[in-house]
TrEMBL record:
<protein>
    <recommendedName>
        <fullName>Alpha-L-fucosidase C-terminal domain-containing protein</fullName>
    </recommendedName>
</protein>
<dbReference type="InterPro" id="IPR013780">
    <property type="entry name" value="Glyco_hydro_b"/>
</dbReference>
């Protein structure tokens, strides 16, 4: 327990990140030069990391949900591509899951 300058107990909240996962998703070529698609199970949400898409390999331009073209939050660095997938997103392939489109810079 932490104590403040007046000697009173200070409660602290620690943010636990239980929804961070490293993935090796099913990846397929969309037919476009600058796009790959990734299949995610319906249970895959939260912060997802795709190690094979680190910024020393390719540079990502944007990440979209395939069915609605909704833009997803993402960050790319030397550790991989980190995508924030909200839990309530619609499923692209019926009950099976969803597909993400990853667009690359030329």
């Amino acid at each position: 327990m932490l104590i403040d300058q007046q000697g009173s107990a200070v409660s602290t909240q620690f943010k636990t990140s239980t929804n961070i996962r490293t993935l090796e998703p099913i990846m397929f070529y969309s037919g476009k030069d600058d796009e790959l698609q990734f299949f995610l199970n319906e249970t895959e949400f939260g912060e997802l990391i795709i190690i094979s898409l680190s910024d020393d390999q390719v540079l990502v331009k944007e990440v979209l949900l395939e069915e609605t073209n909704e833009k997803l939050e993402w960050k790319q660095d030397h550790k991989g591509l980190r995508i924030s997938v909200p839990e309530g997103l619609p499923k692209s392939r019926g009950d099976m899951g969803r597909v993400l489109k990853v667009m690359f810079k030329p």
